[in-house]
Design a protein that fits this description.
Blueprint: E1 4-15, E2 21-31, H1 39-60
Antiparallel strand pairs: 1-2
C-alpha cells in the first residue's frame, strides 16, 4: 500500500474440522502520516475490503 510506511500482510490457509478451508488475514501497518482521526475509517475500509475478498473466495470455491 503506497500510503503506508510499513505494511505487513500475513495470510494463513488451513483446513477446518468441518471439511472447509479457513482463510485468515492479519494486517500490521504504519501510515505515512499521522491518521489518528482517520484511523477508525481506515480500519472499517480495510475490514470491508477483506470481507469482500473472503466472500469472493467463498463463492469461487464453493462446493456445488
Amino acid at each position: 500500500m503506497a500510503s503506508m510506511r510499513a505494511w505487513v500482510h500475513d495470510r494463513t490457509v488451513e483446513p477446518s474440522d468441518s471439511g472447509f478451508t479457513l482463510v485468515t488475514d492479519r494486517i500490521s501497518m504504519t501510515p505515512r502520516m499521522l491518521l489518528t482521526p482517520a484511523g477508525p475509517l481506515l480500519r472499517r475500509t480495510l475490514e470491508a475490503f477483506f470481507a469482500h475478498r473472503h466472500r469472493r473466495l467463498a463463492a469461487h470455491f464453493a462446493r456445488n
